[in-house]
TrEMBL record:
Transmembrane portions of the chain: 15-35, 55-80, 92-115, 135-156, 163-187, 193-214, 235-258, 264-283, 320-343, 363-381, 393-410, 416-435
GO biological process: response to antibiotic
Compartments, record wording: Cell membrane
Membrane topology per record: Multi-pass membrane protein
GO molecular function terms attached to this record: antiporter activity; xenobiotic transmembrane transporter activity
Protein family per UniProt: Belongs to the multi antimicrobial extrusion (MATE) (TC 2.A.66.1) family. MepA subfamily.
PANTHER family with a match to the protein in the record: MULTIDRUG EXPORT PROTEIN MEPA, SPORULATION PROTEIN YKVU
Naturally occurring in which organism (per UniProt): Alkalispirochaeta americana
Compositional bias per record (Low complexity), positions renumbered to this chain: 448-463
Coiled coil: none
Protein name from the UniProt record: Multidrug export protein MepA
Signal peptide positions on this chain: none
Amino acid sequence: MRNVFSSLSPVTRQFLRYLVPSVSAMWFFSIYTMIDGIFVGRGVGPLALAAVNTAMPYINTIFAVSLLAAVGSSTMITFAMGREEWDRCNHYFTLNVVVLTVLGVVITGLSLLFLNEIALFLGATPETMQDVKDYLRIIIIFSTFFMVAYSLEVLVKADGFPVYSTVFVVVAAVTNIVLDYFLVILFPLGVRGAAIATGMSQAVACVGCLVHFLGRKSNLKLVRPRWDWHALKRMFVIGFPEALTELSAAFCIFFFNLTIVRTLGAYGLAAFGVIMYLNNLVLMTMIGINQGMQPLVSYYNGRQEPWNFRRILSLGNRTAVFFSLAFLAIAQLAPGFLVALFLDPRNSEVFALSLRGLRMFSLGFLLCGFNVILAGYFTALKETLRATVICLLRGYLLIALVLLALPPLLGEPGIWMAPVVYEAITLVAALGLYAQYARAHHREKPARGPARPAPRGTPALEH
């Protein structure tokens, strides 16, 4: 195995060193989120699962705020690393931590104050209102941990320790699973138990990441914070497309919930909850590929080596094709097994609804990866406008338009087929933007010699 790895090109080896821990981290995050759903669906019931799904847009929103700072600062840090500007790296890192901590405290206070209004806005029904509020209240208390932990996990990779980030996520996942068992099954606290387990797991991840950055091995260090409006503005502008991608998950769930409540009722929400847990695994895989690429694309952009970052994009797209086909095959060949993880087959109505929905919804798995990766690629190159257009199309405008148009025409199938339509339209637009960029920025690879890798002493890439 080592001989096979050493036979690969330097850029391919770097890509794999970042890809494996990045995707693994996203898998662990997705799987322990799914286990939350399994414990709630199996241990409490389908209406409780519907309540947790209703509350999910809030979690996606605070993660989006975290990515707004994390991806922007990560791109700026790795670009500065390519230029060996270490004071700037530490300044950007410290600014990220301070800003997210302050935002987390403010969001927590406002969310607790308007808890009832948030639950109603998210689409809580009379059957699910109390569970939605119980779940949200606890998640809100842990909001700052969610935001800082998610950001630091991205920055651990930018610091040159992608394997460490996976370790922190694994520890958080195990914490969540163990606490789920105790607080949902042994001590039946219902959705409150699931929320406590999720919140505590994020607190553990946050502490773990902070320990890394306070240790001697880290390259990034906390320094005395100083206000830098220009750096903060750049951070938010660069991170905006990735934040939109994460926030699009919230908008997607929110808009689907509104459509499903009107047409299928509370059991439809439970069925959609099952599908979204599985869709989240697919989406997080693509985001993992994206996050594995971004530090390298940004770094080689700083070194002005476009032939290297184009190679990384090619590797990312091929990886996305592999996983897309694998996920689609599993969803088509074993939908009953997947749905039965979350719901008792004796709940025949919601079980059958989930089966029908999953078979159609999963067709969109083939396309979403390309859109996520192209948006992330443009973000890493600081092509913010192009990245933002892709994110707005797939995550907002087309979801709303397709869900307004298809269900009245096709009924229930129109809901489940929506992802195929909006992902396909977005991909056409994304490929057009890429072709336009390539024409404007194309540079030939040197005629002789292999692609020049980063020097061995580069902290961002040596681990």
